[in-house]
Amino acid sequence: MPVTRRDMTASDFNKRVNAFAAATLLILATVLACLIFVDRCTTIYIRWPGFWYRSRSFHLLICISVLVAAWWAHRCAGRLPGDSEVVFRSVTVYSKPNCELCDRAIEILDQYDDALPEVRVVDISDNAELQLQHGASIPVVEMDGRVRFRGMVSVELLERMIAARQRRQSRHSAADSGSPV
């Protein structure tokens, strides 16, 4: 019986924290820009605290710095799940209980959940046919019906496969829309 596993990884958590920080900093920069505008370009009188007047020459520099920090946090956040298209239709990991390599393979695949669909884990210990087929080389990672990894998942190869698929999909989507590549 296949078991699906979709826990929030540390990578997902960091992406979400960086996305939250980026949004917060962007809001702060917007508020600061509005305050600078009200102070300098309108006749609305607001009694500002003393530090506002002492730091007046640095307001734009501070606002731009906060915008740069927001951009950097957004960049560090990367893509969140749902922000990009999944490049493979199915990912299946054939494994058996108490297999450290299998657990490591699933962890690696979970880190790329923005480009991969939900990982389906199949326990081969109850299926004689699967044991005969994959028993000596688990974990076996099958993507879109093709075996891509046996024994361990190479992060470098996985990243190259994802990048190649993304390039191919962007070329197809550009060709479909009629724009030059």
Give a written overview of the molecule.
This protein is elongated. Mean pLDDT is about 80; it is low at about 1-5. It has a 5-stranded mixed sheet, with helices on one face. With about 180 residues, it is of the alpha+beta class. A hairpin with a 2-residue loop joins strand 4 and strand 5 (about 145-150). The protein has helices at about 10-40, 50-55, 60-75, 100-110, 130-135, 155-175, and strands at about 5, 90-95, 120-125, 140-145, 145-150.
Summarize the structure.
54% of the residues lie in helices and 12% in strands.
Strand order of the biggest β-sheet: 1-3-2-4-5
Radius of gyration: 25 Å
- Computed structural class: alpha+beta
Strand content: 5-15%
What order do the helices and strands come in, and which of them pair?
Layout: E1 3-4, H1 10-41, H2 50-54, H3 59-77, E2 91-95, H4 100-111, E3 119-123, H5 128-134, E4 140-143, E5 146-150, H6 155-177
Parallel strand pairs: 2-3
Antiparallel strand pairs: 1-3, 2-4, 4-5
Defining traits:
181 residues; alpha+beta; 12% strand
